[in-house]
Amino acid sequence: MTTIASALALVRARLDTACLRAGRPVGEVSLLAVSKTFGPDAVREAHAAGQLAFGENYIQEAVDKMAALADLPLQWHCIGPIQSNKTRLVAGHFDWVHSIDRLKIAQRLSEQRDPARGPLQVCIQVNVDAGPNKSGVRPDEAAALAHALAKLPGLCLRGLMAIPEPDPDPTAQAAVLGRVAALFHAIGSSGLPAGAQWDTLSMGMSADLEAAVLAGSTMVRVGTAIFGTRPAKST
Ligand SMILES: *Cc1c(COP(=O)(O)O)cnc(C)c1O
Question: How many A from CA of 147 to the centre of ligand 1?
Answer without folding.
Answer: 27
